[in-house]
Design goal:
Number of domains: 1
Number of helices: 7
Pfam families: DUF2809
Shape: globular
InterPro entries: DUF2809
Number of strands: 0
Distance between the termini: 26 Å
Keywords: Membrane, Transmembrane, Transmembrane helix
Order of helices and strands: HHHHHHH
Protein name: DUF2809 domain-containing protein
Structural class: mainly alpha
């Protein structure tokens, strides 16, 4: 059986995937689930979402490029949390901004980001059949 591979990403599909990941991530933040689910799932889903957003924006770039770009974005967001000036701490007090920028640096978040972006990479390769790897 012949496998069909694509050299580009279908943006409509990526919008649906991104929206699903966002909804799933918000659901895992509910009070009921927050105690039942390991808190790292949010960071994992965040990284997965970043991977698919990068794929959406750069839809003709290879999967390897998207992987590196999304890991860099996630790591930069995490490392910026080490900066604790008063103005940015006040900014991060806003719930929406805190969802985007986070609040405090954790090494475990880097692990979740790595696993999340790798999941996106492998989903593209195996399920979505994106061919390019550069």
């Amino acid at each position: 059986m012949e496998q069909h591979y694509s050299n580009y990403r279908q943006r409509k599909l990526y919008i649906i995937i991104i929206a699903f990941i966002i909804l799933l991530g918000l659901y895992t933040r509910s009070k009921y689930l927050n105690t039942l689910i390991y808190s790292g799932i949010g960071d994992y889903l965040y990284a997965l979402m970043i991977y698919f957003i990068a794929g959406f924006i750069f839809n003709k770039k290879g999967t390897g490029t998207i992987l590196i770009l999304s890991i860099l974005i996630c790591y930069l967001i995490e490392f910026q949390q080490l900066y604790q000036a008063d103005w940015i701490v006040k900014l991060r007090a806003n719930k929406l901004i805190a969802l985007v920028l986070g609040r405090g640096f954790l090494w475990s978040d880097l692990v979740a980001y790595t696993i999340g972006t790798l999941t996106g990479f492998f989903l593209e390769k195996s399920v979505l059949k994106i061919e390019k790897s550069t």
